[in-house]
Structure formats: C-alpha cells, structure tokens
Amino acid sequence: MSKSGEVVILDCWASPFCVRVKIALNEKGIEYENREENLFGGKSELLLKSNPIHQKVPVLLHHGKSLAESTIIVDYIDQTWTSPPLLPSSPYDVAQARFWADFIDKKVFDAGRNIWSGQGEAVEVAKKEFIEILKQLEELALADKPFFGGDSFGYVDILAIALTSWFYTFEQYGGFKVEDHCPKLSAWIKRCYQRDTVSKVSPDPVKIYEFAAMLRKMQGIE
User: Fold this and answer.
1) CA separation for the pair 54, 51 (Å, rounded)
2) Is residue 186 part of a domain?
3) Virtual CA dihedral for 16, 114, 38, 165, nearest 10 degrees?
C-alpha cells in the first residue's frame, strides 16, 4: 500500500478519464488522495503547473512528479505497481490491447459527445456513428470473451468501462438503448460493474445526465 499523500489525483467527478485512473489504482490496491478541481470556477495553480500543456484533468502526482493523459497514467500505474498486471504477458496481445485502447480513445467518447451536444439531424448522424463504433468493439474486440483481454479484467476494460457512465446521457439525447444494439457489450458492462474497483468510483449516470444538461445550457444548445 502507498502511504497517503504519495499518490494524488487531480480529479473532476464527471470525467470518465479520471475514473480510468481511479479504477486502475483500485485494481492495484493503491491508496490515493483525491483532489476535486473546479474546472468552471478557476483551475488550481497545482493543475496549471502540473499539466501546463492541456490544463486538464486527470493529473496523477506520484512523489510530487506529475503525469497527464489518462491512458498514459494507466500505463504508468501498471508499470509502477506490477501486481496484478493490467496488460497481458504476450507482446502480440499487448499490441492488440494498445490497438483497441487507441480505437476507444479516438472514437467512443467523441461520438457520444456529438449526440448530447448536437441538435436536429446531427444527433441522428452521431447516434448511427456511435452505435457502429460500439458494434465494432463488440464483434471484433470483445467477441465471446468475458472481458476484452480474455478471462480477466484488464487494461482495455478499464479504459472502456470508465466511459460507460456517460452512456445513459447518450441514450437519453439519442433516443436509443445500447442494449438493443449491443447485447454482449451490455452484458460486459454489467460484469464490470460487479467489481467494487469499478462501481465505487463510477459516477451516477443520472447525475451525469444532469451535468450534460447544464453544459448544454452553458453552451447555448437548446
């Protein structure tokens, strides 16, 4: 176990990217301090100093050294605390995991954001794109396995499951249900949420929906 204060997350409760970091640390059994950032009312000096390029959360501070970008942080966590491993042991399987991590990072959340932040026809286009992306994940990456890496929960699962707290919001604004289109992926979501490491740090989907509604008003979308 890490001593309190050695590991700090600069966090925003609604950020799925922050959730990734918390799940990874939970999987490793690492204690950490959570510092909530107010991203609308003035970011902390620590955040601006720790992530001067993007000025975004999450930031991981380990013994005072800072790291940004959730996928990079999860990698760092896996290499720093090696047990239990999040990535597979075979170089080929690691490469496959990184391929799907890259796919998830580039596709899933942005497609979903286009649903809740869109209007009119744009929402329908975004919905079709989002469902197609999930189908590709379901058919080509998950297939008939319990988890993306096989029998055990791991790296790709962490990166993907953290985004699903926003799925309810995407469904509400898009007028669809993920389960109707991707039953295997839906079963995987339920499987992941049975893990305390996931459920105890995942935000309430209804609160995320209310948060998205607030963002829409702030951006003048109605």
Assistant:
1) 6
2) yes
3) -30
Residues 99, 201, single domain; the answer is yes
> Is residue 79 within 8 Å of residue 137, measured between CB atoms?
no
User: How many secondary structure helices (H) and strands (E) does the chain include?
Assistant: 11, 4
Same domain, 146 and 104: yes
Residue 174 sits in which domain range? Answer: 91-218
**117 with 72, same domain?**
no
Are the C-beta atoms of 62 and 3 separated by less than 8 Å? no
Closest CA to 211 of 162, 172, 179: 172
Whether the full predicted model's pTM is greater than 0.70, yes or no, is yes
pLDDT tens-digit readout, 202-218: 999 999 999 999 999 99
Number of structural domains found in the chain: 2
- Compute how many other C-beta atoms are within 10 angstroms of the C-beta atom of residue 79: 11
Looking up residue 70, the CATH number of its domain turns out to be: 3.40.30.10
- Higher pLDDT: 2 or 18? It is 18
Residue 14, SS3 per DSSP? coil
> Within this chain, do residues 31 and 128 fall inside the same structural domain, yes or no?
no
- Answer for the pair 71, 105: CB distance below 8 angstroms, yes or no: yes
- pLDDT tens, position by position, 120-153: 999 999 999 999 999 999 999 999 999 999 999 9
The DSSP string of 163-194 is: GGGGHHHHHHHHT--HHHH-HHHHHHHHHHHT
Q: pLDDT per residue over 31-47, tens digit each?
A: 999 999 987 878 999 99
- 20 occurs within a structural domain: yes
